Amino acid sequence: MSIRRPRLEPLVEQGRIWSCPKPRGLVALRIKADDSGTSAVIQTLAAMNENLEGVLRQVVRLARHLGAGKLKWLAPEEDTIMDSLEAAGYTTDWKEPVYLFERFG
Predict the structure, then answer these.
(1) What is the pTM of this model?
(2) The domain spanning residue 96 has which CATH number?
(3) Which of 24, 52, 75, 103 could be 84's S-S partner, Cβ–Cβ 3.0 to 4.6 Å?
């Protein structure tokens, strides 16, 4: 899926998109609160493969800064993404074609 202006504009207007300067990447988060606490959910993430692990680590810091105790991403099953998520400390116990990864603050 490509990230195009019509997809980004609402996220920018809602203040839900951030850029990571080093390593370079772009992320859109949705913050949600329920009985189990406050979570950040990655809605959009864009980074080159070689930057992905570092961007994922930065997103954890951002989520904590926004008050989330947990970060979630319904990530596509792709080796580079899976390896980067695990290297950045994310875990999953959901074994479906698409994985729900979490990282606790």
Answers:
(1) 0.77
(2) 3.40.630.30
(3) 52
